[in-house]
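Hypothesis: this fold can be encoded by more than one sequence.
Test: take the structure tokens below, design a sequence, compare later.
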């Protein structure tokens, strides 16, 4: 969903895939074995179940409200397969870039069940804190270099949400239920709003429309490093991409 230009604007985030369907034909094939190198994938499930298996020996079942945080680092080969034959499948996969110095680190993986994601009640709503921090509450995950914030915000009609952000963070909001408005601009369902990062901004704030709203809020410190992507490999140079393709072909990536 993010184009090359957007990758620059939303650095350190490389991609957001919002999936949602009631039709098993759309998801039943899943994602059989495929490689990744150079970044992290963060999968947040709203509905449905997916089983993960990877070449580092990790296996986990991702269920409603749960998160899977996978650091590909120097390489993993994994599969993501539905563990259901019918019903709804809905969620997000966000790709978070790694700084150059960490792109070839060892792979890492964590399953975070729904019950382990800190949740805050706010006036007219609630916030699930997948990564980062809201007020004094730490989210389920922290990352030093990019300091990512990943929130799921639920608001009743007319309720407000406001979160301070470092002025240098890039940030976006994706509305997946209802609608909201940001500084007077309406953001309908299934739309992404990219926030301007100006020195005087320093926060993300919005108000739910008459039907209420659910939205994810994503923000992070840009890496300001070259981004060279070839499918599931994201490195800093063409040479590193060639190396990744080579390593994969000769079975040395994982
Ligand atoms: Co994958």
């Amino acid at each position: 969903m993010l184009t090359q230009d957007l990758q620059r604007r939303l650095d350190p985030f490389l991609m957001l895939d919002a999936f949602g369907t009631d039709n098993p034909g759309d998801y039943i094939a899943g994602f059989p074995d495929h490689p990744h190198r150079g970044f992290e994938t963060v999968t947040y499930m709203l509905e449905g179940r997916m089983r993960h298996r990877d070449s580092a020996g990790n296996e986990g079942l991702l269920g409603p409200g749960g998160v899977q945080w996978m650091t590909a680092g120097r390489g993993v080969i994994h599969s993501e397969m539905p563990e259901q034959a019918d019903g709804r499948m809905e969620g997000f996969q966000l790709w978070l870039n790694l700084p150059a110095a960490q792109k070839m680190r060892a792979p890492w993986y964590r399953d975070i069940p729904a019950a382990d994601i800190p949740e805050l009640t706010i006036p007219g709503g609630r916030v699930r804190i997948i990564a980062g921090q809201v007020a004094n509450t730490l989210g389920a995950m922290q990352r030093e270099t990019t300091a990512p914030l990943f929130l799921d915000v639920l608001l009743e009609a007319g309720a407000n949400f406001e979160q301070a952000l470092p002025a240098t963070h890039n940030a976006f909001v994706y509305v997946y239920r209802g609608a909201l408005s940001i500084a007077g601009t309406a953001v309908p369902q299934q739309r992404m709003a990219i926030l301007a990062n100006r020195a005087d901004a320093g926060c993300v704030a919005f108000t739910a429309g008459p039907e209420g709203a659910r939205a994810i809020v994503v923000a992070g410190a840009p890496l300001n490093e070259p981004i060279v992507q070839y499918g599931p490999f994201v490195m800093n140079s063409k040479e590193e991409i060639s190396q990744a393709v080579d390593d994969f072909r000769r079975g040395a990536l994982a």
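The pocket of cobalt (II) ion is lined by residues 31, 34, 36, 41, 78, 80 (CB under 6 Å). Helices lie at 4-10, 24-27, 238-249.
Hypothesis status: open.
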